Amino acid sequence: MDEAVRFRQALVAWAAGGAEAGAAAAAAREVAAGGGVRTVVLVEGGSDRAALDALATRYGRSLDAEGVPVVPLGGATNIGRFLDLCGPQGLGLPLAGLCDVGEERHFRRALERVGLGSPVTREDLEAIGFQVCDADLEDELIRSLGADAVRRVVEAQGELRSLLTFQNQPAQRGRPVERQLRRFLGTHSGRKAQYARALVESLDAGQVPRPLECLLAHV
Q1: Residues 219, 39 contacting (CB under 8 angstroms)
Q2: Rounded to an integer, what distance in angstroms lies between the CA atom of residue 71 and that of residue 8?
Q3: Angle between helices 191-202 and 137-145 (to 10 degrees)
Q4: From CA 144, how far away is CA 91, in angstroms rounded?
Q5: Are 98 and 48 in contact (CB under 8 A)?
Q6: What is the pLDDT of residues 55-110, one digit of tens each?
Q7: Interhelix angle 3-16/79-86, nearest 10 degrees
Q8: Among 78, 81, 174, 192, which one is most buried in terms of CB atoms within 10 A?
Q9: What is the pLDDT of residues 142-176, one digit of tens each?
Q10: What is the pTM of this model?
């Protein structure tokens, strides 16, 4: 198992607490002390990780192999717990991250609390390695690709009929197609991660959303 993979699994278990937390903490500390982690990237969920891994692969990179574990928080409100474990008062590891605009305030407050600057503006966040998606990752990808291209990706995934059925629901009729697509991507468990990877793989070189591009450049 790659050290970055081991660290990610241990960190998530440590943050969750419970009976396994002690052993997980020891494993995370061991990997960190051994130099197996260069930078920890904290993201809200699994779809963010899928997108970053897919984009890195397109650039000929493997973040895990580089010692850059992308760690899903399981929700933006958990950022404080992970910063406590990984930040200056914990393992003291270099950090970066990605969040939705609606969760930006949680990240700002948590970063300031643990001593990682006083990020007041978006530029302040970016300067310390944290990027913000408007409104979220799915919205960034849909805007970058365009609705027609996203529909083609859905068709390639074998879900065009499901999309058409969804768009015909009373609650969806009359909504902009971009909003329909964004909602569709979140209707089933695992679909966000599935399409995060598929949509990133469909991007042309000049279409990569700025938050993803800047985050990868930072790490």
Answers
A1: yes
A2: 6
A3: 30
A4: 37
A5: yes
A6: 999 999 999 999 999 999 999 999 999 999 999 999 999 999 999 999 999 999 99
A7: 120
A8: 192
A9: 999 999 999 999 999 999 999 999 999 999 999 99
A10: 0.95
